[in-house]
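Supplementary Text 2. Reproducibility record for the structural model of the 106-residue chain.

All settings were left at their defaults, and a single model was retained for analysis rather than an ensemble. We include the record here because the model underlies the residue-level annotations in Supplementary Table 4.
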Amino acid sequence: MRGMSFLLDRTVKLREQRIPDSRLERTAESRWRRLDDDIAETFYLACTEGDLAAAGDLLAILEKWHIQRRYTDLREQQTRTTRLKRLGGELERQHITRGIRRPDAR
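Retained model, structure tokens:
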């Protein structure tokens, strides 16, 4: 069987494609989302290994980012708020389970 091929004239110039700004914004959002997911995964790993100080630090980072971030819509913001509450609840549960007093608890 014979392979297919075609010839191009060397004067053909392919124009550079411009990426619309809206697509660039979505790319930046997904990058932050992946970073948040990785930090949350590291948080759960720290909880599993009993390193509650590190888990608390990771949760503080996520909370700080949550306050500073601009969200595209209310639903995304509510989803992130709920997720942070769940992470905080998990950290509290880990402290109770291990019988360790939280550093910020008085």
